[in-house]
Amino acid sequence: MISRSWAEVASAQHGTITGRQLSAAGVGPYRRAVLVERGLLVHSARDLFSLPGAEPAWPHLLWRALLLAGGQAVASHRSAAALWNLDGVSPGAIDVISLDGRRSSRIATHRPSGISEADVVRHRGFPLTTVGRTLTDLGQLTDDDTLERSMECGLRRGDVGVDELRDRAARAGRGQTGPAALRRVLDRRPAGAVPTESDAETLFLQVARRAGFPTPDRQYTLLVGGKRIRLDFAWPSIRLAVEIDGAATHANADALGRDLRRQNVLVLGWLVQRFTWEDVARYPADVVDALGKAWGYATLRLASH
Question: Which one of 105, 132, 230, 268 is most buried, counting C-beta atoms within 10 A?
Answer without folding.
Answer: 132
